[in-house]
Amino acid sequence: MGAAEQRPGAPGRYAAWVDSTSTRPARSLVTARTAAVWQVLRREQERQGRELTVLDVGGGTGGFAVPLAEAGHRVTVVDASPDALAALDRRAADAGVADRVRAVQGDGDALGGLVAPGSVDLILCHAVLEVVDEPTEVVAAITAALRPGGALSVLVAGRAAAVLGRAVNGHLSAAAALVDDPEGRAGPRDTLRRRYDATSAAALLTAAGLTVEEIHGVRVLADLLPAAVVESDPQLLLELELSLATQPPFRDIAAQLHLFARRP
Ligand SMILES: C[S@@+](CC[C@H](N)C(=O)[O-])C[C@H]1O[C@@H](n2cnc3c(N)ncnc32)[C@H](O)[C@@H]1O
C-alpha cells in the first residue's frame, strides 16, 4: 500500500468514519482523492441501515461498486465498455463478492430496460456526465430508476480547477478557451465534452426533479501538490481535503464536484 492510501477498516485516525458500524468494512482504499465521497456514501448507508439496491451508472471497473458490495449491498453496474465490465467481474471475484455484483453492458440514458423503474435505493454516476452525449437524458433515466426517497451520488469535472490547472502549467490559450466555452471545454481535442460548477451541476439535477442535499469539492488539493508532499503526511492531506470539501471558495476550485441528491 502506498503511503497516501488508507485501508477503510484499518486502525488509525479515520477508522471511525471509514469503518461503518452498520456495514462490513470495504477492502478498497480510501484516499484523499475519494474520502469526501466515501464519507457521504457511508452516511447514507448508516441512515438506511439495511442492504441497499445500488446502481452504478458508468461504474467502469468497480472502484466504488466492489467496496459497496463488500459492505453488503447488491450492486448493478451499467457501463458502455465491455472491457471495463470484464475488469469489474475480475475485481468482484477477487474480492469474493461476485454474487452481489451484476455487470450490464448498456447506455446510461436507457436504463428503463435494465432496471425496474422506481426500484433503486442508491445510484452512483461518477465521472460520466462530462462524457455522455446528453447529460439531461442520463439524469432523467437515473431519476426514473430511483425509488421515491432514493439517493443519487454524482461526481462531475470542475470547470474552475481545469482553468487553473491549465493556466499554472503555462497553457494560457487552453485556459482562455475553457473560460470562454459555454460548456467548459478546452477546444476540440479536450477529452471531456463539458465541465460544471456547483450552480450548473445542481441545476441539472434540480431540473430532473431531484433535491440536492449536499455539494462537496473532491480533490481540492490532491491534484495540485507534488507527490512528495502528498506522501509526506497522507493523513493530514486527507483531513485537509475533508475540511476544505465543504468550504467555498475551496470547494469550488476542486477537480471534481460531488453532489448528493434525493428523489422526493
Ligand atoms: C471516467 S470513467 C468513470 C468510471 C467510474 N464511474 C469511476 O468513477 O471510476 C467513465 C465511464 O463511463 C462509461 N460510459 C461512458 N459513456 C457511457 C454511457 N453513455 N453509458 C454508460 N456508460 C458510459 C465508460 O465506459 C467509463 O467506464
Automatic annotation (TrEMBL):
GO terms for molecular function: S-adenosylmethionine-dependent methyltransferase activity. InterPro entries: Methyltransf_11, SAM-dependent_MTases_sf. Residues 55-153 form the Methyltransferase type domain. It holds the Pfam family Methyltransf_11. GO terms for biological process: methylation. Keywords: Methyltransferase, Transferase. The keyword Glycosyltransferase does not apply. This is Methyltransferase family protein. It comes from Krasilnikovia cinnamomea.
